[in-house]
Automatic annotation (TrEMBL):
Residues 17-43 have a biased composition (Acidic residues). Its cofactor is Mg(2+). One of its GO terms (biological process) is Golgi organization. The chain crosses the membrane at residues 112-129, 135-157, 335-358, 385-404, 846-867, 879-899, 929-953, 965-984, 991-1011. Belongs to the cation transport ATPase (P-type) (TC 3.A.3) family. Type IV subfamily. Mg(2+) binds at D450, T452, D789, D793. Keywords: ATP-binding, Cell membrane, Cell projection, Endoplasmic reticulum, Golgi apparatus, Magnesium, Membrane, Metal-binding, Nucleotide-binding, Translocase, Transmembrane, Transmembrane helix. Residues 1-55, 1086-1106 are annotated as: Disordered. It is found in: Apical cell membrane; Cell membrane; Cell projection; Endoplasmic reticulum. This is Phospholipid-transporting ATPase. It comes from Lates calcarifer.
Length: 1128
């Protein structure tokens, strides 16, 4: 079924049916929302009440043209111990993180805060300790340096760019009033309290109180693109008193006002303060402020007073840390890494215990293994434990995290490059604004969508209205030369009624629409009046003023205290006595006007719920208007009620005094103003109602239907009336006739709503939208996605696991807070069903294979330990261990993570059920992890024991055994490389040239490097590093009982039972610092004499025993002794 939650807006709502113009408060962070949700956890689940907003403190004082004032002791703050500095920031900004001295230590500190990097650093330290080290230090150092180096270079490039930007910004020029005249100064030298002069196209250097402007009525137009991404112009307005008295340089130099306002904060939508000047107090709000980051437009010159500078400005305060979102796979991967680490500890401990027992039983009793160290079995076991921690560390390879980041970056680029998500009409491509969440797009269970501008186009058209109980529907506008030719309305009877001027209600209706608004008008110079351009805060308001214009009531201009309109070719100017602002608590706005004939009248427009509560008992047409409203709502039209009230002069003067007191209140100003507004907004007389159409975007019904087939539950959260929302639900295929509809307000919200196929929450406010998302995340542990287009959707977008912004008609705040952004709702199906699904499948396949290939690689050491006395000896050659994850096996699996497809994009969209595995998390979980583990164990068994069995009893044509340690290690490593590269080939669903090249290239690189490091040339160049693979081949030449040995390379070890492998792989056979025990006589035989190869004395021969080659020769002697004994 579907669920309708009709929740009245308790704290926030909208003008009329919607809350779309609710300004976004950046102070309300996700953490605060989380806290509010925690507090509600004790109550039964339901739509929560929004948290109470904290009031800003009015503790900031700014004195104009008085720099010493801001350095008084009362404005000092303690920085360190007894060092103090002014609490007022200078205007220089610093966004860079490092300098020459701090880059290396700080960057390394930041990188080592990551557990994986710290883990590998600890391994590196262990490898430096001689008694523990079983692998050369470079096997860990090289991968670690590569990872740290790449990250450090990226951070350095980013920080150098920040340095350049800071320098450029801090050295910008601006005119500042110093010593009675304007002087050019750098931005870095501006201070709080300075008066500055700005000119057209100047960037605003700080948060400035607008004092005066060259435009009439102290208007100043600004572009806020750097602040909120919006390119349309906004207007700011100075106080009338400062504009009239502060135009000249001399007047500005004598200006000595004291500003008291809120402390610096990150609220882009709010400012509250008071100006004390010449014993008068004047209220200040955001309309009087020019914020840093904006640009002056269409204004030749303006003057302002610096209130907040540098780090205190609102744009800099908004540069704080955002909540880092993690994917489910991220969390799972971290838990699995912890699991592997626990396994590593357990295996290393088991093998260390094995070594303890082995040494007690065998090692300590074998005279040929004596190393004169005097260490007991337990201590040797302890050292062996740390040795195995090093040897087996590749179960948690450092390249895992780097590879995951590369794959995510690539997947983000594919989203950006997708032409099928490009909106040509507005030249808007899709944009992945984060690189960490791509695979989560393939696991979405709930979508929370705004309605206006997200499902609809947010392009408003005035369609119907009801005046004095009579409804009018959709006219030829040729009679009106001021008409907007795009405007369509079909009912000629209303036109006739308005043109006759006999219907007073119709006259008042359109007069109200032309007067009660905050729209600004732009006149195109030299063009006819029909080229008026209206700039409205919301599309609704623009549509209503345009409707009045077409019916002959043309809004022409406004000043700070007048509004001029043309009423059927007769121009009239009305004095504006008060503007009672819209906010989302009030859901209405009012204006009090003094007519040319002296009458005072209040006009009000707002949502039917708030207007009907305030109507006079004598108001007519309530029932008929309500019936019309219901009909309009059923046609999915957005409705507003219009009303008026006549006010006597005495009543207004008494109210006006209260209004002025509330305007300059130092605390709870908003609440004080609301109380004053309530006093005057009562006993209203209803005129009628408007109905505005907002059409659905293209492809919305098909997208919703397709997402529903993928078992994604879609909730629409809107400020509209229940009837409007329900009908929108039907028109966009969210609801269907075969659904059972449930309405309710006091139900068990979460449990019942989550059982429904679709949910529509009506009359919800921005905070409630975010809290609904929090509830589902908290109680259902589901992966959520929020999609919206307006500032009122920002909290919802930030709260969900994934936030999607629609770049539509309402600016860019939603996009700037989102993780993904595009221009049309219909692109959501491609984002989820194609990119999300592919990303999830690729990441899961990558992780499964990555764990497999590292288990298969590392566990060979485990099997080898049973034949090497558990002595933490490695089964591979050192360089192979170093390069395995970097060169030999990384590229094929990386390309699968980037390019693999099980089916193409068309089939992914055609069969939405293919999305289900991601929601259920079936492709990567602990079950898959242990399958990868056992797969790796099986492969490691095969690639160890088959070569072991093959070499065990082997004889070459020359009668020698080719089964030395080198040959065994190379064969095992080669088997591994073939196995993992052929396995990834079998797992690849989508073959491209680069996949084929990567597989063959990895094998070719392996053999190329292997031949190089086993060549004579590399030994000649680095004899100490490559003693393992000397250039010569030592062969024994015996004649009779005497014996001669020719040194021509590595010893060819004789074949004998498993004890041979045990001896060959003991660490002391490879360590040059171990010598023959001094108190033991060297074994003698008729064919061996120390130093015989060199032709020197026995003493010289004893010195050569210290070399690695002689150490191996000693081992060979022991082997031959045992071989002779065995044959005897």
């Amino acid at each position: 079924g579907a669920k309708m939650s009709r929740q009245r807006a308790d704290s926030q709502g909208s003008l009329g049916p919607d809350d779309e113009v609710m300004p976004y408060s950046d102070d309300e962070t996700d953490d605060e929302l989380a806290v509010s949700s925690e507090g509600e956890a004790e109550e039964p689940p339901g739509v929560p009440h929004p948290p109470v907003e904290a009031k800003p403190k009015m503790g900031w004082k700014v004195k104009a043209n008085d720099r010493p004032y801001h350095h008084l002791p009362e404005f000092q703050k303690k920085v360190f111990l007894c060092i103090k500095k002014s609490r007022y920031s200078g205007n220089a900004i610093k966004t860079y993180k490092y300098n020459v001295l701090t880059f290396l230590p700080l960057n390394l500190y930041e990188q080592f805060k990551r557990a994986a990097n710290l883990y590998f650093l600890a391994l590196l330290i262990l490898q430096i300790i001689p008694d523990i080290s079983t692998l050369p230090w470079y096997t860990t150092l090289i991968p670690l340096v590569v990872v740290l180096g790449i990250t450090a270079i990226k951070d350095l490039v980013d920080d150098l760019a920040r340095h350049r930007m800071d320098k450029e910004i801090n050295n910008r020029k601006c005119e500042v009033l110093l010593d009675g005249r304007f002087q050019e100064s750098k931005w870095r030298n501006i201070e709080v309290g300075d008066v500055v002069r700005l000119k057209k196209n100047d960037f605003i250097p700080a948060d400035i109180l607008l004092l005066s402007s060259s435009n009439p009525n102290s208007l100043c137009y600004v572009e806020t693109a750097e602040l909120d991404g919006e390119t349309n112009l906004k207007f700011k307005m100075g106080l009338r008193v400062t504009d009239e008295r502060l135009q000249e340089e001399r007047q500005l130099a004598e200006f000595d006002a004291l500003i008291e306002c809120e402390e610096p904060n990150n609220r882009l939508d709010k400012f509250m303060g008071t100006m004390l000047w010449q014993r008068e107090r004047y209220p200040l709000d955001l309309d009087n402020m020019l914020l840093r980051g904006c640009k002056v437009r269409n204004t030749e010159e303006c003057h302002g007073l610096v209130i907040f500078a540098g780090a205190d400005t609102k744009i800099m305060r908004n540069g704080g840390k955002t909540r880092f979102k993690r994917t489910k796979i991220d969390e799972l991967m971290n838990y699995m890494v912890y699991t592997i680490f626990v396994l590593l500890i357990l295996v290393a401990a088991g093998l260390a215990i094995g070594h303890t027992f082995w040494y007690e039983e065998i090692g300590s009793k074998a005279w040929y293994l004596y190393d004169a160290k005097g260490q007991d079995a337990s201590y040797r076991g302890f050292l062996s434990f740390w040795g195995y921690i090093i040897v087996l560390n590749t179960m948690v390879p450092i390249s895992l995290y780097v590879s995951v980041e590369v794959i995510r970056l690539g997947q983000s680029k594919f989203i950006n490059w997708d032409l099928q998500m490009y909106f040509a009409e507005k030249d808007t491509p899709a944009k992945a604004r984060t690189t960490t969440l791509n695979e989560q797009l393939g696991q979405i269970e709930y979508i929370f969508s705004d309605k206006t501008g997200t499902l609809t186009q947010n392009i408003m058209a005035f369609k119907k209205c009801t005046i004095a109980g009579r409804s009018y529907g959709p006219v030829d506008w040729s009679w009106n030369r001021h008409a907007d030719r795009k405007f369509q309305f079909m009912d000629h009877s209303l036109v006739a009624c308005v043109r006759s001027r006999k219907d007073k209600d119709a006259t008042e209706f359109f007069k109200l629409l032309s007067l009660c608004h905050t729209v600004m008008v732009e006149h195109k110079d030299g063009k006819p009046c029909s080229d008026l351009v209206y700039q409205a805060a919301s599309p609704d308001e623009g549509a209503l003023v345009t409707a009045a214009r077409n019916f002959g009531y043309v809004f022409l201009s406004r000043t700070q205290d007048t509004i001029t309109i043309k009423e059927m070719d007769q121009e009239s100017t009305y004095e504006m006595l008060a503007l009672l602002d819209f906010n989302s608590d009030r859901k209405r706005m009012s204006i009090i006007l003094k007519f040319p004939d002296g009458r005072i009248r209040l006009y009000c427009k707002g949502a039917d719920t708030v207007i009907y509560e305030r109507l006079s008992p004598n108001s007519r047409h309530k029932e008929t208007t309500q019936d019309a409203l219901d009909i309009f709502a059923n046609e999915t039209l957005r409705t507003l009620c219009l009303c008026y009230k006549d006010i006597s002069t005495d009543e207004f003067e008494a109210w006006s005094r209260k209004h002025k007191d509330a305007q300059v209140a130092m605390s709870d100003r908003d609440a004080a103003l609301d109380r004053v507004y309530e006093e005057i907004e009562n006993n209203l007389m209803l005129i009628g109602a408007t109905a505005i159409e907002d059409k659905l975007q293209d492809g919305v019904p098909e997208t919703i239907a397709k997402l529903a087939k993928a078992d994604i539950k879609i909730w629409v959260l809107t400020g509209d009336k229940k009837e409007t929302a329900e009908n929108i639900g039907y028109s966009c295929s969210l609801l269907s006739d075969d659904m059972q509809i449930h309405y309710g307000e006091d139900i068990d919200f979460v449990n019942m709503a989550c059982e429904c196929e679709a949910v529509i929450c009506c009359r919800v406010t921005p905070k409630q939208k975010a809290n609904v998302v929090s509830l589902v995340k908290k109680y259902k542990k589901a992966v959520t996605l929020s999609i919206g287009d307006g500032a009122n959707d920002v909290n919802m977008i930030k709260t969900a696991d994934i936030g999607v912004g629609i770049s539509g008609q309402e600016g860019m705040q939603a996009v700037m807070s989102s993780d993904y952004a595009f221009a049309q709702f219909c692109y959501l199906q491609r984002l989820l069903l194609v990119h999300g699904r592919w990303s999830y499948i690729r990441m899961c396949k990558f992780l499964r294979f990555f764990f497999f290939k590292n288990f298969a690689f590392t566990l060979v050491h485990f099997w080898y330990s049973f034949f090497s006395g558990y002595s933490s000896q490695v089964a591979y050659e050192d360089w192979f261990i170093t390069l395995y994850n970097l060169c030999y096996s990384s590229l094929p699996v990386l390309l699968v993570g980037l390019l693999d497809q099980d089916v193409n994009d068309k089939l992914s969209l055609k069969f939405p059920k293919l999305y289900l595995p991601g929601q259920q998390g079936t492709l990567f979980n602990y079950r898959n992890f242990f399958i990868s583990l056992f797969h790796g164990i099986f492969v490691s068994l095969i690639i160890f024991f088959i070569p072991y069995g093959a070499f065990l009893q082997t004889m070459g044509q020359d009668g020698e055994a080719p089964s030395d340690y080198q040959s065994f290690a190379v064969v095992t490593a080669s088997s591994l490389i073939f196995t993992v590269n052929l396995q990834i080939s079998l797992d690849t669903s989508y073959w491209t040239f680069v996949n084929c090249f990567a597989v063959l290239g990895s094998i070719a690189i392996y053999f190329g490097i292997m031949f190089d490091i086993h060549s004579a040339g590399i030994h000649v160049l680095f004899p100490s590093a490559f003693t393992f693979t000397g250039p010569e081949k030592q062969e024994e030449v015996r004649d009779g009982g005497g014996g001669e040995e020719k040194a021509v390379g590595l010893p060819a070890w004789p074949a004998f039972p498993p004890l041979r492998l045990c001896l060959l792989s003991l660490p002391w056979l490879r360590r040059p610092h171990l010598v023959w025990p001094k108190h033991s006589a060297a074994p003698t035989s008729p064919w061996w004499t120390p130093g015989q190869h060199q032709g020197g004395s026995p003493e010289r021969g004893r010195k050569h025993l210290k070399s690695r080659r002689w150490t191996k020769t000693v081992a060979r002697v022991v082997v031959n002794i045992l071989g002779s004994a065995q044959s005897t």
